[in-house]
Amino acid sequence: MKNSLLLRIFLILNSLLFNICGSHAQQVPIGNYSTDINGQVLLEVNSSTDNYYILNVRHSPSTPFVLATSMTIGQAGTTIITEPLGAYPEDYYEVLEYSINTPFDTDGDGIDDITEYQNTPFQNPINPAETITIDNGLVSIDALLTFNELSIEPETVQWSPYLDGKEFVKFLIDDYDTPNAKIYFINTNTHPEHIGFANQMGIDHLAPDVVKGQIVYHPTVLSNNGTLGTYAFNFSNNESMDFATVQHTQELVAAGMPIVENNLSYYINAGNEGEYYSEISLYQDSRVSVLFETDVYAGLDYWGLNQTEGYGFFRLMNLNDVPGPKDIVLYESIPNSIPHVGGIITSVIQTPLSHANLRAIQDHIPNAFIRDPLDNDSIVDLLDHYIYFNAEQSSYTIREATLEEVNTWYESQRPPEGQIPPLNLDYTSIKPLDHITFDMYDGFGAKSTNVATMRTFDFSEGTIPDGFGIPFYFYQEFMKHNNFFDEVQTMMIDPNFINDRDVRDSLLAEFRHKIEEAEMPEWMLNDLAEMHASFPFGTSIRCRSSTNNEDLPGFSGAGLYESKTQHPDEGHISKSIKQVYASIWNLRAFEERDFYRIDHFYTSMGVLCHVNYSDEKVNGVGVTADPVYSTSNNFYLNSQLEGELITNPGSTTKPEELLLSKFWTGGDDYSVIQYSSLVNGDSLLMSESHMNQLRDHMAVIHHEFGILYNALENSSFAMDIEYKITSDNRLIIKQARPWVSYVYDESVQNSNSNCQLIVFPNPASESINITCRDCDLTSVRITDLTGKLVREKIINENAAGNSPVFVENLPSGVYFASGFVHNTLCAFGKFIVK
User: For residues 479 and 349, which has the higher predicted lDDT (pLDDT)?
Assistant: First the structure.
C-alpha cells in the first residue's frame, strides 16, 4: 500500500480506459471559472436539458484526467458544475457532455449513468460498487440525513478512544489499486466492525487491495471552508498512510459524498504526524486538507462575537436577575433581553443576530461564548470582583481591575451631555400607514415610518403590513391627563430610587401597573375605537412599540420595549396600547436612557398597529450585507421553523443560517452555513421562489433606504429586516431598521445626493459656519430636536459660500441645520451646542 508507483500505473490505465470508452463524449469548453464561498469550483458551460455532464479532474496540468468527481444534469442555456472538494485551477478540469437519451457508463459497472443517477444513493454513476440494501450500507451519501442513518455515536469505543462520543460512518474500498475502485459506506449500526460487512459482501477484508476506515463528523470544528462542521476520514486502527494513498482515498470518499462542501479532511493523530511531516511539501501543494487530533479535542471552546474590551463588576446571572450598566455578566443560558451592561459572556453558543450580540455591537461592549467557564478557576475566582475583559477573535483576556478603572471606563462610554430625542407633537391624529412618510419619524417613530415607507416600494400586495400609526402626541396627552409626569419627577428624585436598584425596579413596576390601569381621555378612546373598527371583525391586532429612541441609525434599541397583541375577546384596544405605553418605564429601558443621558420626559411611545400574523411556517431576520463572514455580494439570513426563537434560541436548537447571493444567476444562489436543527437532513426552510422574492426585496430595501439615509456610499450601511412565511405561503416583511453597526455620520446628512451640507465647528459654543458643496444656499434654518425653529438666516448672495449663525445663547444640546435653495430643502446636518 505504501508503494504509490503501482497506484500511479493503474491510474494511468484508468485514464486510457476513459479515452476509449468515452469516445462518443463531447468535451465542452469552460465558459467561466470561479469559486464560491466554500472554496469550491464553479464551472459555467453552455448546456441543454437533453444532456448531462461528467466532471473529470487531474492533480497537475501535465497528467491525464483520471478521476470523475461529479455528474450534473444540464439546464437550458448554461449550467454551473462543481465538485465536493476545494477548487483546482481551471486547466485541472475537463467537462464531458453526454446525451441523456443515450447515456454513457462512466464507472464501467454495466449500468448506465442516468439509471444510477436516478437511483442515488443506492447506486452511483461514478462509483462501480454494486448495489446493496440500506441495512448493510450505501454507495453514496447524498444528504446529511443519509449520513445520520448510517452513522453511530457511541459513548465509548474501546479500541479507538478518539471515536468516543463522535458520530461516524465506516467505509470500505475494494479493488483499491485498480481503475475500478469500489467504495462502500457501511451501515455502522448493522456492522459496527468492518469484518461483519466484508463477510456479508464476500470481501476478504485483509486483502492488500482493500482499504478500510471511518468518516467522523465534528460539528464544532472549523472546517477547511471556514465554517463550523467538518468531516474527517482516517484509516482503520489509525494506520499511517503515504500521501498518494491519502490523496486517492480522499478523492474516492468525496466522489461518494456529494454533501461535502470542501469540508472533508484527513485526520492525523499524534502517532502518525511523523509520516505527515515527512511529506508535508506534497500536502501543501495539494488540495488535501488535514485535521490534527489536537484541533479536534480543542473543539469550539471560544467565540469572540463582538471583539472589544470593557470593565465592570463580574456577576454570575440567572434569567430572573436584572444586571446593571456597570456589570459584566456571565449567563449559562441566553436571556430574551439584556439591559445595558459592561460586557457579556455566555456558556452556550449565541447566533450573530441574537439580541445579546446586537446589544453588544450597539453598546460597544465585549461579547463572547466560552465553553464551561465555571470549570475554569481563572474565571470563577474573579466572580464578584471588578474585572477587565477583552474579547478577541480567537482568545480573550480577563483580569482583576480597580474600581477607579471601572468608573473611568464607564464615564468614557457615556455621552458628555444630555440628549433630547426627536419629538414632534404637530401630528395629532392616528394615520393610515399610506399617509405616513419617512420624514415623520419624529412624530410616529422610525418603526412605523419605515414600514410605511416600504409600502411605497411597489412590492406585491400584502408583502408589507397595512395598518396605522399612533403618534407620540397620544402618549404625551395620556401621560399629562393622568399627571404621570409629575409622578415620574417625584420618583426620580427619591434617594432610594437613585441609590437602590431593587427599589428602582420595584417603583418602576408599580408605575407601569398604574399606567395599565389608568383612564384615557374620551376623545382618545374614540379615535382608537375607530381605528380598531377599520380592521376586519374578529382580527387580532399587533400593537408594536415605535418610540423616538429605537430603530434609529446607530441605535437600534432592540429588546428595550414591548409589543402586545390585542385579541378579539379582550375588549377595547386601549388595553394593549396602555401595556405598550407602560413598557417605556421598564427597568432596562430606563437605565439604557439614563446611561445615554436621554431625557425621560421627551422619550415618547408611538404605536404601529397591523394585523397579527400567527401560525407562520417560517420566521427570520436578515441583513442586507454579510456582517458575520464579511463576504461581498451576499445577504445574511437566519431563519427558523414556525415561531421558534431565532435571536435568542435555546441551547438545543439552531436556526438555519445562510448567505443569499445579491444576484440571481438561475442556479443555487445561496450558501448554507448551517441547517435548522428542527428539520431533518439538509432541507431548507424557504422555497426557491421565496428566496428569490426575498433577494429582490432586500436589494430594493437596501437601495431605497440607502438614499433616504444618504448612506449608499457608506460601507458600514445595511438594513436589518424581519420576515415571515405565513401559513398561506406569503412572504411578509414586517420591519426594517438600520443595521446596528452602521456608522452614522452626524456631521453631514443630505436630502439631495447632489448637495452636501457642512456644519463647523461641531460641537460649537458661539457660532457655526454652514457651507454647501455643489449648491448655493439662500437660507438656513436651525431647529431643536422637538422641531421648534430657533434660528433662521437669509444668506446674501455675496456671502462667499458660508454663513455664520450665532448659537451662543442656545441651551446646550443637539440641533438640526437645514439648508434651502429658494424654499426647497437641499440638505441638512446635525450639530451640538456645548
Answer: 479
**Three-class secondary structure of residue 832 per DSSP:** strand
The torsion angles phi and psi of 781, rounded to 5 degrees, stand at -125, 135
Closest CA relative to residue 442, chosen from 290, 348, 551: 551
Q: How many residues would you count in the chain?
A: 834
With H, G, I as helix, E, B as strand and everything else as coil, classify residue 430.
coil
Q: Which residues pair with 216 in a beta bridge?
A: 168, 232
To which H or E segment does residue 707 belong?
helix 688-708
Helices and strands counted in the chain (H then E): 21, 40
pLDDT tier at 557 (50, 70, 90 boundaries)?
Answer: low
Contact status, residue 53 vs residue 97, Cβ threshold 8 Å: yes
pLDDT higher than threshold 50 for residue 524: yes
Strand boundaries in 258-385, DSSP class E: 264-268, 290-292, 302-306, 309-317, 327-331, 343-346, 367-370
Q: Which long-range contacts (CB under 8 A, 24 or more apart) does 144-148 make?
A: 144/259, 144/675, 144/681, 144/682, 145/680, 145/681, 145/682, 146/121, 146/259, 146/681, 147/217, 147/257, 147/259, 148/681
CA Rg, the chain, in Å? Answer: 32
Q: Are 185 and 171 in contact (CB under 8 A)?
A: yes
Instruction: Give the C-alpha distances (Å, rounded to integers) separating 432 from 250, 436, 474, 531.
Output: 62, 7, 15, 9
Question: Residue 563 and residue 609: Cα distance in Å, rounded?
Answer: 10
Grid coordinates representing 613? 400574523
DSSP state string for 733-776 = EEEEEE-TT----SS-EESSTT-EEEEESSSBSSEEEEEEETS-
Q: HEC states along 437-471?
A: CHHHHHHHCHHHHHHHHHCCCCCCCCCCCCEEEEC
Higher confidence at residue 424 or residue 559? 424
Q: Which of 458, 448, 543 is nearest to 737 (CA)?
A: 448
The answer to whether 205 and 172 have CB atoms below 8 angstroms apart is yes
Helices (H), 518-643: 522-533, 574-582, 587-595
**Distance between CA 256 and CA 249 in Å, rounded?**
11
∠100-104-108 over CA atoms, to 5°? 150
Instruction: Evaluate whether 228 touches 248 at the Cβ level (below 8 Å).
Output: no
Side chain identity, residue 509 = A
Determine the Cα–Cα distance for residues 630 and 619; give it in Å rounded to an integer. 24
CA gap 530, 306 in Å, rounded:
46
Rounded to whole angstroms, the Cα distance separating 553 from 702 reads 14
Euclidean distance between CA atoms 456 and 106, whole angstroms: 55
How many other CB atoms are there within 10 angstroms of residue 787's CB atom?
Answer: 14
Contact between 454 and 736 under an 8 Å Cβ cutoff? The reply is yes
The helix or strand, by DSSP H or E, that contains position 116, with its residue range, turns out to be helix 113-118
Residue 129 is given by DSSP the state: P
Pairing of strands 137-138, 167-174: unpaired
Q: How far is CA 761 from CA 84, 159, 769, 806, 828, in A?
A: 58, 74, 7, 12, 15
Residue 242's nearest CA partner among 283, 214, 208 is 283
Q: What are phi and psi of 610, to 5 degrees?
A: -150, 170
Q: Output the nine-digit C-alpha cell for 758.
A: 457642512
- H-type helices in 521-573, by residue range? 522-533
pLDDT > 90? residue 488: yes
Please state the pTM of the whole predicted model. Answer: 0.54
Higher pLDDT pick, 167 / 608: 608
Across-strand partners of 201?
Answer: none
Give percent of the chain with pLDDT exceeding 90. 49
Q: pLDDT (tens digit, 9 = 90+) per residue, 25-44?
A: 889 999 999 998 888 999 99
293-300 average pLDDT score: 62
